[in-house]
Structure formats: C-alpha cells, structure tokens
Amino acid sequence: MTQWSISEYHNFCNTLKSMWLRVSFDLVFDIEIPTPFILMLRPRSGAQQWVARESYKIEPNIQAYEYTDAFGNLCQRVIAPSGLFSIQTEAEIKTATYVDEAPDAPFVEIQNLPDTVLSYLLPSRFCESDRFSDLANAITANALPGYNQVVAIESWLCNTISYIPGSSDYAISAIEVNNKQCGVCRDLAHLGIALCRSLSIPARLVVGYLHNLEPMDMHAWFEAFVGGRWYIFDATQSGKKGGYVSIGYGRDAADVPLFNQYGPAVYPIKHLVKVEQIAKEN
Amino acid sequence: MTQWSISEYHNFCNTLKSMWLRVSFDLVFDIEIPTPFILMLRPRSGAQQWVARESYKIEPNIQAYEYTDAFGNLCQRVIAPSGLFSIQTEAEIKTATYVDEAPDAPFVEIQNLPDTVLSYLLPSRFCESDRFSDLANAITANALPGYNQVVAIESWLCNTISYIPGSSDYAISAIEVNNKQCGVCRDLAHLGIALCRSLSIPARLVVGYLHNLEPMDMHAWFEAFVGGRWYIFDATQSGKKGGYVSIGYGRDAADVPLFNQYGPAVYPIKHLVKVEQIAKEN
Amino acid sequence: MTQWSISEYHNFCNTLKSMWLRVSFDLVFDIEIPTPFILMLRPRSGAQQWVARESYKIEPNIQAYEYTDAFGNLCQRVIAPSGLFSIQTEAEIKTATYVDEAPDAPFVEIQNLPDTVLSYLLPSRFCESDRFSDLANAITANALPGYNQVVAIESWLCNTISYIPGSSDYAISAIEVNNKQCGVCRDLAHLGIALCRSLSIPARLVVGYLHNLEPMDMHAWFEAFVGGRWYIFDATQSGKKGGYVSIGYGRDAADVPLFNQYGPAVYPIKHLVKVEQIAKEN
Amino acid sequence: MTQWSISEYHNFCNTLKSMWLRVSFDLVFDIEIPTPFILMLRPRSGAQQWVARESYKIEPNIQAYEYTDAFGNLCQRVIAPSGLFSIQTEAEIKTATYVDEAPDAPFVEIQNLPDTVLSYLLPSRFCESDRFSDLANAITANALPGYNQVVAIESWLCNTISYIPGSSDYAISAIEVNNKQCGVCRDLAHLGIALCRSLSIPARLVVGYLHNLEPMDMHAWFEAFVGGRWYIFDATQSGKKGGYVSIGYGRDAADVPLFNQYGPAVYPIKHLVKVEQIAKEN
Q: Where does the record place the Transglutaminase-like domain (chains A, B, C, D) (predicted)?
C-alpha cells in the first residue's frame, strides 16, 4: 500500500534526484511618464526548490519596496521614471530532475482538504470552473478519482488543444481557450485548472521557468491537489518532465502577473529569458 | 480642508449615528446523500459593525468546524447527513444609520495603496475589469478622480442596468450583465466593481443584510477604496442609505458564497431572511 | 498499530462524546479616567468546540472594534469612559465530555513539526524553557518520548506544586513558580509548558472555562503537541477530565490576557464566572 | 508643522541618502550526530532596505526548506549531517546612510495603534516590561511623550549600562541586565525594549548587520513605534548612525535566533562576519 506524504517538507526530502539551474530574466521598458509597477520576479525557496543565489538589479537605481502577497509570492513595488527602465533577475536554484508522479493517488474528500487549499476550488477570472462539469466528467469518465483524473485531463489537453507558443497577446479564459482549441502555455493551464476544479479537485496556476523549454520564455503550468499534496501537471510537455522553477502561485494568471503596470500601457522592448543547467555536487 | 481618516478603527469611531438590527436567516435543505458544505453565514464585529448577540443553530446536531478564510470571513465546514438539514442564524448588530459619504475624496495612487488592498485591483471571475477601460472612462469623463468617479459609476448603473430582484439563478459576469442590461443586486455590484478596477480603483464585493430591502432577502453591494479607506456603494438603492450588515467580503461572488455545496446539487427548500430594527440605547 | 490523526478537523470529527455548556462572565470596572482596554473574552468555534450561541454586552453602549491577533484569538478594543463599565459575555458551546488521551503517542522530530507550531518551542515571558533542561530530563527519565513525557510532567506538577486557587495577584514565571512550589492554575501551566519546551515538545497556554471547576473562575491549562496534534493537559485536575471551553491560545499568559488595560491601573469590582451544563440532543 | 508619515512604504521613499553594503556571514559547525537547525540568516527587502543580490550556500549540499515566521522573517530548516557543516551567506543591500530621526514625534495612543503593532506592547521572555514602570517613569520624567521618551531611554542606557561586546554567552533578561549594569548589544536592546513597553510604547528587537561596528560581529538593536512608525534606536553607538541591515524582527532575542539547534548542543567552530561599503550609483 502506498502512503501519501502529507507535509510539503517531506515532499522535498523524499525527492531523490535534483539538478541545479541558473535562470535569468532581462526586461527593459521605455517609459514615457512615471509609471507604478508591481513585479513578481523573485523565486523563493520552498518545498520544491532551493534558491542558493539570487540577484535583482533595477536600473536606474530607484527606490523599490517588497511585500508578500496572500499567496506567499514576493512582489516588488516601484515607480519607474521616464526613460529606459530595466530589471535583471538571476538565480541559481536546485529543483527536481523529474516531477513527482503518483498514479492512483486518491481524490481528497472536501471535508478532508486543508483550509488553505479550499480557495483553489473556486472559479476565478480565467478559470470558469462553474461551467465545465459536463466536459470534465466526459474526459475523466474512466479514471480513478484523484491523480488519474488529472492525468486524463492533461492528456486530453495535450491531444485536443494545440499548444502554440506566442499565439496570444493577452490572457483569455478557459471558455475562450476551449472555443479556440489552441493557446499558449497559460491557456492550457487555465483550461486544465477549470476542468480539475469542476471535479472538486483544487488546482492552481504556477508561473516560472522550465529547463529546455522550446522556444525559451517564461512558462506557466498547473498543480492539482490529490493524495494529500500538490502535483505538477503540464500539458505542453511530453515524456518525463523536470527542471521546473516556480516564481509565483495563484488561482490563475490574474493573481500571478510577472508585472502589473498602471497608467498608459507600456510594453517591454527587451524580454530575454535564459535557463541553463550548472554543475554542483549532489 | 477635509482630512481623510486612514484607520478602519477611526472610521467606526467617527460614525455619528448608529442603529441596532436583529437579522436572521433560515435555510433548509432536503439532502439525499451526505453532502459537504462550506457556509459563510456568520457576521463578525469589525470597523463598520458590532455583533452584540449571535446564534447559529444546525439541525441535526452534527459536528461543525469553523475557520477564517484569506479575506477574514468566518466559514463553517459541515457534512450534511441525508434528510432534512437546517441552519438558523440570528444576530443583533449595531451598524451605521447612514453610510459614510466623502464627496471629492481623492483617488489613491497605486504606489500609496496598502499592500493588502492591491489584490482588489485584479480582475476576478465575475469582474473582468481587464475589458472595461473604455466604458469606465466614458462614464466617469467628467468626474474628479476618486470618490466622485465611483459615484458616477453608481449613478450610471442605477440609470442603465435594470435592477430585477430574483431574476438570476446563478452568477453571471460583468460582461454578461452589461450585455443583458439587467440583473440582481450581485450583478450590479459585479459590474460596478469591474468598472472601478478598470480605473485602478480597488473594489470588492460585500454580501450581507440590508434593513428595509424590498423584497427582503440576502443582499450584495460593493465597496471602493478611495481617499484612504473603503466606502459603501449600492446601485440598487436610492437616497441616503444605511442599515448594512456585512457577512463576507471578497473579490467577487466566487469568494463570498453564502454556501458552497459539493456533490450532486441540492437546493434550499426554505430560505427566509429577516431584518428588523430593535430598540437599544445609543 | 495506532494511527495518529494529522488534521485538527479530524480531531473533532473523531470525538465520540460531547456535552453542551452555557458559560458566562460578568466583569465590572469603576473607571476614573477614559481607559483603553483590549479584551479577549470571545470564544470561537474551532477544532475542539462549537459555539452555537453567543452574546457580548458592553455598558455603556460605547463603540467597540474587534480584530484577530496572530494566534487567531478574537480581541476587542474599546475606550472605557469614566464611570461604571461592564462587560457581560455568555455562550452556549459544545465541547468534549472527556479530553482525548493518546498513551505512547510519539515525540515529533523537529524536522517534522508544522511551521506554525515551531514558535511554541521558544522560551517566552513566563516560561523560561531555556533554563529547565535538567529538571525536565529528571522528571521524564523513564518515559517514552512524546505523550508519556508530558504525562510525567503533568503528574510531577500535580505531586510537587501545590495548586492554590487565588494565591497570586500577578503572573509569575516558571522559575518563580518552581521556587515557590505553589501557584494558581496559570502558574502550574507555565511550569508545565517550560518543562515541555525544554524537551523540544511544543507547548502553549490556553485560557478559558472549565465545567465543575472548584472554586468556579476563569481557568488556564496547557496543550502539548505530540503524535501530530495538540493534546490538553491540566495538572490542577485529577481523573478523567472534560468540559473545557477555550477563549484564547498563546505562548504564555502574556499573550492571552482576559483584559489588558492601559493607563492608571483599574481593578474589577465584579468578576463572576458561571459554567453550567445544558440539555441539547446529541 | 511636521507631518508624520503613516506608511512604511513612504518611509523608504522619503529616505534622502542611502548607501550600498556587502554583508557576509560564515558559520561552521562540527556536528557529531544529525542535528536539526532552524536558521534565520536571510535578509529580505522591505521598507528600510533593498536586497539587490544575495547568496546562501550550505555545505554539504543537503536539502533545505524555507518558510516565513509570524513576524515575516525568512527561516531555513535543515538537518545537518555529522561532520563539518557550513553556511555562507552574502548579500548586497541598499540601506540608509543615517537612520531617520523625529524629535517630538508624539506618543501614539493605544486606541490608535495598528492591530499588528499591539503584540509589541506585551512583556516577553527577555523583556519583563511588567516590572519596569517606576524606572521608566524616572528616566523619562522630563521628556515629551513619544520619540523623546525613547531618546531619554537610549541616553540612559548609554550612560548607565556598560556596553561590553562579547561579555555574554547566553541571553539574559532585562531584569538581569539592569542588575549587572553591563551587557552585549542584545542586552542593552532588551532593557531598552522593556523600558519602552512599560510606558506603552511598542518596541521590538532587530538582529542584523551594522556598518563599521567595532569589533565586527552580528549586531542587535531595537525599534520603537512613535509618531506613527518604527524608528531605530541603538544605545551601543553614538553620534549619527546609519548602515543598518536587518535580518530579523521579533519581540526579543527568543524570536530572532540566528540559529536554533536541537539535540546535544553544538557550537560554531567558525563565525565570521563582514560588512563593507561598495560603490553603486545613487
């Protein structure tokens, strides 16, 4: 009989194999009028990853302020002055070589879910889970409740929704994704989340880096809570996956913006993401 | 020169006139199979109201468990057994006779908003604020940024969207409300919230009781953060308003369900709301 | 093999027998100059108890404001005007007829403790756990690590420290209690907590009501975290115990004042506690 | 008329002059048996400082897990294996060249304190503020309530308690410090905190780095909440001070350990702190 670990701490300790990644993100804007930004670009150590080295450079060298949002993400507040405004972040992080899998891990009854997980059952801006029961039931008709249902959803997404990196300028919702039958990584994740929640499986969006992503860019995937813990799912990748580095968690993309900018819209004139494996013992 | 109070505590102390209300809610279900519920039916004392007496009766007398969600709302978790399942809540509460008004209270710049208020700027399930900039700008074209903009939005809702109590079975989003041009209290609030947020004014949904509501039922309205604090707005009522008792706050109705029920849908066979003024000194 | 439950929610559901209590507390002060108070007199529903009915009456009918402290306790802030100032609280609460016991429940290794429990390992104002290693080791020399160690501490307190209700005007620390070899309920609890923590067992103070306490008054006891959850211990009572109603939790009495008053000291001119069993089905 | 800023965010923006520091801490233990540690060695960006670059190296390369405690401090949990165990932390941080001063900033009435500040009024393990009223009143007899009282306390500490770096192996309490009339930085801070709290001024301990500290080591100082915000005080330094980098905040040293180690005591065989100013524009 398999025993499902219950503590995030344990998850990490049980991870057999890990790898070291150096991740970086360069972002440059050309600002016309002073513009308030809220950025979410700082990975933090947690159950699934360890940040050993990190830098965060803002130019010009303006005042910045950091706070933690309700999901535990580190957010930076700045007012970008007019002119070139750049952010360079870099980190060295240990993460799992392969994501944990748990075939047959059971569905967790609502009454047994931790309080903090309950909000991930609710519909959200881009995941209208209140409208997906029929589809979710059809997709998972033959799956054991729990982990296997989420695998069925992930496979369905993989086979049904075309993954077209760079195909979307702004976030669209799960309903819209399902209508278009194609989308970026974020869109597939949103639809996966909506389907999970409609089956009363808590699900959340994760934004971050992925080793060997093609083409390289920031990435988004989702996690589902089954068998007593969160598991990573990503319908944009096939085969055994690993090398995920998370920056932020939330109910959907509305909660996890890499940057939110207020006032007249500005767009990055540079947006460069790098992920490379580095040698460290372990 | 008006000075905007900055503390919720102060808000309450400055309230000149208050009234006492006895509110109650009876809810009965006929349950077929044991059904997990998460209820949000317990008002709590805060800056705007004081709960002097409260009862919460569940029949049959099953185990119940209470927790506080991320918005500070009290939530009750139970598993309703098959058969009749009833909840009776009653409370005696002091609240303001008239809601505070603050003509000309200024817009709060993003960089000056408290961290905890920032999440109320984001789009949410039923408030797609990312799609309402043009409409919001048109509605508020002549208003001073801040409180007066929200008044303009409230007036526009009042004049444009028909308030039809009981007209909706399930929550629809601000876009859908704007298309239908009519809705229940919750729908008008959602559209008001979406419009505020699209102007970078934080806005949240409130669910609770309202004295003299016609027809009497649970009610929903919205609050906007201007001039350094939250103010109540309600496009379904005209004239000077008061007698509000809040039960829960959230980004929209997804966060503030009176009850969330899991498994095959069950509907209340009784749903009775009462609000009456009672005599207490003060 | 015994399985230790891991969820506070489960604790409650597994409780086989419970009783209903009506508890009340009347407190009256004669105030000379306006005096700020922070009160902690409001029990809340949680894993171990369910509050079905509650009232909280303040006279004169001044403004009051409620907030939740870092331990999850409900606190009320008021400024008492000069003259008579009274608080009457009453609640009907379901609680366990007998507290849970768990002989042999294991010591939880530091690395396996939940994050939120770690602060209950630290020394605090009235529990100088950094000075009690030798004594704690002597007392528990023959006990299995975990629950049985706490039972050994509870027995040692019961046999060594004379419990003299009403013998202390202000809180003294565990070192002082151990020197005096006598104390009130709070003092015995403080010493028990200091001994537990010195063995790396998380322990916390609880303040509340106890059915059949002699003489009747507010009460204090402690909880220790072993076998994956909190268990109640109370060296002032013998035999199988039950009928506990908690009002507040904290590291020690400094965190859990029934009232904290600022400015020139005032003392209650009335202080009346009642606990009676009432009949309800279950 | 001076206007007291109310937002921590503003505090930072108003800081006129800042400097860049590179701080580092090397810590090595020789471990006999596997030993759980909780470390607090990671500065974070906040209102008073900005972390631009940071590294945290643990050898051997064991699993580590990070969480945020109730005070917002980043804590790392590890189990050190037997053998040499080393931690090297380094950070580049922007901080104020001179700490803010605010002569005559007023005492904040209890009823106007933010909820989150109230716990810093309570006595704690090493700050028995419940026993210092008379001394505090004597020391501050001629001072305007608020900032000036804290300055009087700081001056009294400076003149009365000999600051002897390295003179103490383990933490002693404010009462003990006052009896000995000498102490390390932490001891002076504890006595300062106890005196402030006995006057109903919230005060907290800060642990971190200080530029030009002699002899260089980790440092401790205190902050008091007057005039609507926290101000730094440090009785071990004279003249205009600056160059503070905080790692952790708490009620006293019990809350802010650089490391807490469980099981048989181990002592660092290396403990090396460096702080140097580096050139960056601004």
A: 177-237
Q: Does D7 touch chain B (CB under 8 A)?
A: yes
Instruction: Quote the distance between the C-alpha of residue B9 and its chain's center.
Output: 20
- Count other Cβ atoms within 10 Å, centred on residue A170: 7
Instruction: Identify the residue among A6, A14, A116 best suited for mutation to test binding to C, counting C beta carbons within 10 A and taking the highest.
Output: A6
pLDDT, residue A251, reads: 97
Instruction: Give the C-alpha separation, D30 to C231, whole Å.
Output: 36
Residue D181 DSSP one-character state: T
pLDDT tens, residue by residue, B180-216: 999 999 999 999 999 999 999 999 999 999 999 999 9
Helix (H) or strand (E) holding B148: helix B147-160
Per domain, the residue ranges of chain C are 12-96+259-277, 110-255
Across B179-194, b (16+ Cβ under 10 Å) vs e yields eeeebbbbbbbbbbbb
Please choose, from the candidates D165, D178, D171, the residue with its C-alpha nearest in 3D space to the C-alpha of residue D273.
D165
| Cα–Cα distance measured from residue A272 to residue C146, given in angstroms and rounded to the nearest whole number | 53
Paired with B56 in beta bridges are: B89
Q: C72 at the A interface (CB within 8 A)?
A: no
Look up the CATH architecture of domain C110-255: Roll (3.10)
DSSP assignment of A134-168, as one string?
HHHHHHTTTSPTBHHHHHHHHHHHHHHSEE-TT--
- The predicted structure's pLDDT at residue A11: 40
Task: Say if CB D211 and CB D219 are below 8 A apart.
Answer: no
A82, amino acid identity:
S
* B66: pLDDT strictly greater than 80: yes
Q: Backbone phi, then psi, for C177, in 5-degree steps?
A: -60, -45
CB contact under 8 A, D128 and C125: yes
Q: Whose CA is closest to D95, among D228, D223, D232?
A: D232
Q: What percent of chain A has pLDDT over 90?
A: 78
Which chains border A (3 or more CB–CB pairs < 8 Å)? Answer: B, C, D
Q: What ipTM is given for this predicted complex? A: 0.89
Interchain CB distance below 8 Å, C114 and A7: yes
Q: How confident is the model at residue B47 (pLDDT cuts 50, 70, 90)?
A: confident
E-state strands within chain C = 18-31, 35-39, 49-59, 64-68, 74-80, 83-96, 162-163, 182-183, 203-210, 219-226, 229-233, 244-250, 259-261, 268-278
For residue A239, what pLDDT is reported? Answer: 79
Which residues in chain D have Cβ-Cβ distances shorter than 8 Å to B72?
A: none
Q: Which CATH number fits domain A12-96+259-277: 1.10.150.120, 1.10.357.10, 2.60.40.2250, 3.30.565.10?
A: 2.60.40.2250
pTM: 0.89
Inform me whether the C-beta atom of residue B181 falls under 8 Å from chain D C-beta atoms: no
The residues facing A30 across adjacent strands are A84
Provide the total of helices (H) and of strands (E) in chain B, helices listed first: 5, 14
Is the preceding omega at residue A60 within 30 degrees of 0, hence cis? Answer: yes
Whole-angstrom distance, CA of residue C55 vs CA of residue C165: 28
What is the rounded average pLDDT of the residues D54-79?
Answer: 89
What parts of chain C have a pLDDT lower than 70?
Answer: 1-16, 168, 281-282
Contact assignment for B130 to A170 by CB distance below 8 Å = yes
- H helical segments located in chain C: 8-14, 133-139, 147-160, 174-180, 185-198
C-alpha closest to that of B197 among B120, B109, B94, B266: B120
Beta-bridge mates of residue D218: none
Phi-psi region of C20 (alpha: psi -120 to 50; beta: other; left: phi over 0): beta
Cα distance between residue B51 and residue B69, in whole Å: 19
Tokens of C230: 């909190």
Residue type, position D82, single letter:
S
